[in-house]
Amino acid sequence: MKSRLLCLSVILAAIGLAGCDRIDPNSPLGKRKAIYQQMLDTKEDLGGMLRGRLAFDGQKFAAGAAKLDELSRQPWQHYPQVKEEQSDARDEVWQKQERFHELARALEQQTAALVAVTTRKPVTAQGVAPAFQQVEDACEACHQEFRIY
């Protein structure tokens, strides 16, 4: 009986500790991570259409581009003045805020340009691919400077 109680205590402690690294979804970090995940999911679907993983559908691509554009304007408001302990961002986000915001605006410009390309009918993979690449390049530029991998 004593060993069962000890075993149960160890299991409960492990479960409790496993939850310690969880991120509060209502915290600034939780909110921006959720937005970034939506951006990634949307970008992966768009990229999948361009790379043949998914069937290309111009209407779905245009809707995805619009969603990505909307999302690209949202995470920046969820960066507090002081870095959180769990953040995946480098200290430079807070030390070089002007550059960080410059790259954020560049992403917003590229997602808007992608949406503009989707207004030209018919929407084709060849027609949208260069603008989509510019969006991916804007994401990568910011990650190179400000994300801890």
From TrEMBL:
Binds 1 heme group per subunit. Heme c binds at residues 139, 142-143. The keyword Electron transport applies. PROSITE patterns: CYTCII, PROKAR_LIPOPROTEIN. One of its GO terms (cellular component) is periplasmic space. One of its GO terms (biological process) is electron transport chain. InterPro entries: Cyt_c/b562, Cyt_c_II, Cyt_c_prime. One of its GO terms (molecular function) is electron transfer activity. Pfam families: Cytochrom_C_2 (PF01322). Signal peptide: none annotated. This is Cytochrome C. It comes from Stutzerimonas balearica DSM 6083.
